[in-house]
Amino acid sequence: MGVREKARDIAVQALYQLSLRGMGDLEEIAAFRWVDEEAYVGITSQAGVWFKGAAQMIESLDEVIDRHLVNWAPDRVGRMERAILRLGTHELVSSDETAAEIVINECVNLAKRYCDFDSYKFVNGVLDAVAGSLGRKEIS
């Protein structure tokens, strides 16, 4: 697993914890030692940037996500799927540093790792729609 992929993994775990514990625990979750920080300084640093950025925009990210749900009520989206969608949407909305296809692909891989069997298709569809609405479809 590459540095950015591991950082996304950590950030999504932290966002999942935030959905369980609430915004009052934001700093405690952000300070948690997800990995040996001496060995993975770049990973924990990037994960923290993504986690805190997404956490600070959580309401607006959820609005964007919910607008792109097709035949799904927002309350049907599982906590882990929501955490992955928040991370991916945050990166798509906040930065064009990484191609949309890479962001989406890595979020799909997170869904395959942590969610139900077909959840990755759902995550792919929602993030693809978000990227399209933002004009972030670099490859046809």
Write the layout of secondary structure elements.
Blueprint: H1 3-21, H2 26-31, H3 41-56, H4 58-67, H5 79-94, H6 100-114, H7 119-133
List keywords for this structure.
140 residues; N-utilizing Substance Protein B Homolog, Chain A; 7 helices; globular
Describe what this molecule looks like in 3D.
The chain is mainly α and 140 residues long. The protein has one domain (3-133): NusB-like (N-utilizing Substance Protein B Homolog, Chain A, Orthogonal Bundle), CATH 1.10.940.10. The chain is 69% helix and 0% strand. It is built from seven helices and no strands. The longest helix has 19 residues, at 3-21. The two termini are 27 Å apart.
Number of helices: 7
Rg result: 14 Å
Name given to the CATH homologous superfamily: NusB-like
- The CATH C-level class name: Mainly Alpha
Summarize the structure.
With 140 residues, the chain is an all-alpha fold. It is 69% helix and 0% strand.
